[in-house]
């Protein structure tokens, strides 16, 4: 499934004549994964009642973490031959599968971000 997400994002950016489709995809995935980490963190703080340290973190360290996280995404996920092979692998997908796949990828991206904001008031309601 993750291979398909990369394929779909990469192919969308290439069709839009994005000058840096790789960077755009890596940034999108980094952002989504940051929100997913925040979801896990918020659930853990809510369930296990340990003190929240997120508000006390120096903003510089937070920015450094995001850059390191994006760098890790680049080194772990990006491989030019593999990403081009994804374009080849899925190029003949049927229109119905393409439509369903697009819906699922957009749902994954938006759902990860929206879930964070939906869970915040639920988890920290007093």
Mind telling me the C-alpha Rg?
17 Å
Count of alpha/pi helices: 5
Order of helices and strands: HHHHH
Low-confidence stretches: none
Percentage of β-strand residues: under 5%
Note the overall shape: globular
Helicity level:
over 70%
**N-to-C span:** 38 Å
In this structure, how is the largest beta sheet organized? none
- Let me know the average pLDDT: 86
Kindly name the structural category: mainly alpha
Q: Tally the beta strands.
A: 0
Q: What does this molecule look like?
A:
With 126 residues, this protein is mainly alpha-helical. The chain has five helices and no strands. The model has no long low-confidence stretch (mean pLDDT 86).
Describe the structure concisely.
It is built from 5 helices and no strands. With 126 residues, it is mostly helical. Helix 1 (2-15) packs across helix 2 and helix 2 packs across helix 3 (59-77).
What is the fold's blueprint, element by element?
Elements: H1 2-15, H2 21-48, H3 59-77, H4 80-90, H5 95-123
Structural key phrases:
mainly alpha, 0% strand, 80% helix, 126 residues, 5 helices
